[in-house]
Amino acid sequence: MFPVGFVRFATAIEFEWTFVFSPRPRYIRAHSMEDLRYPVGRLQRPETLSDAQRRAAIDVIAAAPSNMRAAVRGLDDAQLDTPYRPEGWTVRQVVHHVPDSHLNAYIRFKWALTEDCPSIKAYDEAAWAKLEDSRTTPVETSLTMLEMLHDRWVRLLRSLSAADYSKKLIHPENGPMTLDGLLATYEWHSRHHAAHVVDLRRRSGWG
Ligand code: NI
Question: In the predicted model, what is the mean pLDDT of the chain?
Fold first, then answer.
């Protein structure tokens, strides 16, 4: 066995090595990956919203198509086909994902408004993003699609009462959700994906 003094020395060296070289870089890496993936923070989904919160959330959803259009303005094909983070979707896949997601959201609202607590269908967003149309379609198609879709969706959202927003659906993974919870989800989702593109532009110096 080693004398006690050597063990103390070895432990001290190991501690110092760990302290100096390991925790801080690991923290920085973990922190920045979280920031890259969740640039506006993770989703907080409240069960209910106040009237003012609801109006603000609808305004964000109403502005989402023009915000996404501004986020990709002037990007060329090589830039659009750049992943927004390591292992992440390309900008093009992000742009096509948003109407994929919001079409599902629009239909979920309609189901909850016209049926009694319906069970909805989840979809595999990662698999949808790998399909040919998500990888190669010009982004203009989805920007226009988002404008048209949000025009209908926002008209619907602005017409609903507080009682409507308390209506529920059953999500296969999240369980029962109110329409307030769904509204908060898509308000966050609208900001989340536009920020992926805006952040990439900033980090890449694309202007
Ligand atoms: Ni998404």
Answer: 88
Counting every residue written for the chain, the total comes to 207
Ligand 1 centroid – CA 157 distance (Å): 20
Residue 43: which pLDDT band, with cuts at 50, 70 and 90?
A: very high
Specify the pTM.
0.84
What is the CA 55 to chain-centroid distance, rounded? 20
C-alpha 2 – ligand 1 centre gap (Å) = 56
Task: Tell which residue, 132, 106, 139, 131, has the closest CA to residue 120.
Answer: 106
User: How many angstroms is it from 198 CA to the middle of ligand 1?
Assistant: 15
Residue 89, helix vs strand vs coil? coil
Q: For residue 124, how far is its CA from the centre of ligand 1 (angstroms)?
A: 11
The DSSP-derived string for 21-55 is HSHHHHHHHHHHHHHHH-TT------S---HHHHH
CA 193 to centroid of ligand 1, rounded, Å:
7
- List the structure tokens of 46: 């409240």
Name the token pair of 11: 């432990």
What's the CA angle centered on 128, arms 124 and 132, to 5 degrees?
Answer: 160
**In angstroms, what CA-CA distances link 114 with 15, 33, 107, 111, 177?**
63, 41, 11, 5, 15
Chain segment 91-116, per-residue pLDDT in tens: 999 999 999 999 999 999 999 999 99
pLDDT above 80: residue 153: yes
